[in-house]
Design goal:
This protein is mainly alpha-helical and about 425 residues long. Among the domains are: about 160 residues, Helicase, Ruva Protein, domain 3 (Orthogonal Bundle), CATH 1.10.8.1310; about 130 residues, Cyclin A, domain 1 (Orthogonal Bundle). About 55% of the residues lie in helices and about 0% in strands. It contains 20 helices and no strands. The N and C termini lie close together (about 5 Å). Keywords: GTPase activation. Pfam families: RabGAP-TBC (PF00566).
Length: about 425
């Protein structure tokens, strides 16, 4: 079984040319310099809920209603649970989510079985890759958790992922899957999270199924819906993004992990999961569009440069108003049904394919017409701009960024063969 890799490296920093960790939404000017060239390898460190003395009266009333319903859950239909999950503040706390998330996807008590031991699963071809991803996910655990409990959670997470891909061997594990799995595990526990993750991974309308195919082409196709949605809402913003050539790479970890990889606040992550668990499979793409629209002022002030724009968009501020963003995303979905966007998405992909062919032909002509000078060694064969130190540094940065993207699409070429004996 092969893996998809949304991470260009294994560390916690994304600093090809500097630190691109999440920042506050205050200073746009500081984004516009080359040290902020970003990749998508930074797992955000979660900040877990704190107790607040004040609670919105509407949320308090909703909390009381949830508690009444949970005393007699058999009397509540699916639509009522969905309304709770989608409306303001979502399901409010993990105490309620633990009981309601399985109901949102139709999990029954009979499906909540005890897991096997980790030793029973250690022979699977993806075992070592899953363990590496789980070991990189320490920032997704509650702070101050005792060592023994942390180790137990890591083992539970590894078992959870391996159980799913063993049950559905045609599905391809991708790095980022563990971000979804750990959120389900932290909220629902190991017995309920397995059938829940199975529902999300396989079956009609399973939202994670497109990510678990042999290639990322199905995922990329679905993510391309974001640009027609943005253009219909804000033509000027769409022109800016198109001119910069930023593409959709900045949003790939958002989509693959339902934002679990990229957000700092645990409360934001589980709030989005409340909604996504009962929304159409493509709804996270509409949330992506709504988020970019929300940040339009920053985007329009940013240098019209692919690297700078990618860095700006991929660094999510901590103070995003997700309740407002969800309302906007719902409106965008109602006004722009995915079936109505198919022609625009197909036209976009056709233009991109034509541009790739033009670029390839242009590169072939340049290579065919290039004649190395007689003297000057290897440095003399470089263009004048690249013989200068600044030009060589820029070329090195670009090469590193392209290499990270290549590793992302073809991770199996860089994996230890001993880790993947079946490949």
């Amino acid at each position: 079984m092969e893996s998809h890799n949304p991470d260009g490296e294994t560390g916690d920093k994304c600093d090809i040319n500097g630190d691109c960790s999440p920042i506050s939404n205050k200073d746009t000017v500081s984004f516009n310099h080359t040290k902020n060239i970003d990749d998508i390898s930074t797992p955000s460190e979660l900040k877990f809920d704190e107790d607040f003395e004040f609670e919105d009266p509407d949320v308090t009333e909703k909390r009381n209603e949830l508690e009444r319903c949970l005393k007699n859950p058999d009397l509540i239909n699916l639509e009522q649970w969905q309304n709770f999950a989608k409306s303001k503040a979502g399901l409010i706390s993990d105490e309620y989510r633990r009981q309601i998330w399985p109901l949102l996807v139709g999990v029954t008590e009979d499906e909540m079985t005890d897991p096997p031991s980790l030793d029973d699963l250690s022979k699977h071809s993806e075992y070592h890759q899953v363990v590496m991803d789980v070991n990189r996910s320490l920032k997704r655990f509650p702070p101050g958790i005792p060592y023994e409990q942390r180790v137990a959670l890591q083992d539970q997470l590894t078992v959870l992922i391996l159980r799913v891909i063993m049950k559905y061997p045609h599905l391809k594990y991708y790095q980022g899957y563990h971000d979804v799995a750990i959120t389900l595990l932290l909220v629902c526990g190991e017995r309920a999270s397995f059938p829940l993750l199975c529902r999300l991974s396989y079956g009609p309308g399973a939202p994670l199924a497109p990510f678990m195919q042999a290639t990322l082409q199905p995922t990329q196709h679905l993510l391309n819906y974001v640009f027609p949605v943005i253009r219909r809402a804000d033509d000027r913003l769409a022109d800016c993004l198109d001119k910069a050539g930023v593409g959709t790479m900045f949003a790939l970890p958002w989509y693959l992990t339902w934002f679990g990889h990229s957000l700092n606040r645990y409360a934001d992550v589980v709030r989005l999961y409340d909604y996504f668990l009962c929304a159409p499979p493509l709804f996270p793409v509409y949330v992506t569009a709504a988020l970019v629209l929300h940040r339009a002022p920053d985007v329009l002030q940013c240098d019209c440069d692919m690297a700078m724009m990618h860095c700006l968009l991929s660094r999510l501020p901590d103070d995003l108003p997700f309740e407002d963003i969800l309302v906007t995303a719902k409106k965008l979905y109602e006004e722009n049904d995915p079936t109505d966007l198919e022609a625009e998405v197909n036209a976009l992909e056709k233009r991109e394919e034509e541009q790739r062919k033009l670029d390839q032909e242009r590169m072939k002509r340049r290579q065919a017409g290039r004649v190395a000078p007689r003297g000057g060694g290897w440095l003399g064969a470089l263009p004048a701009a690249l013989r200068r130190p600044a030009g060589r540094r820029a070329a090195l940065a670009l090469t590193a960024a392209l290499f990270a993207i290549y590793v992302y699409y073809r991770p199996e070429l860089f994996r230890n063969r001993e880790d993947s004996p079946d490949l």
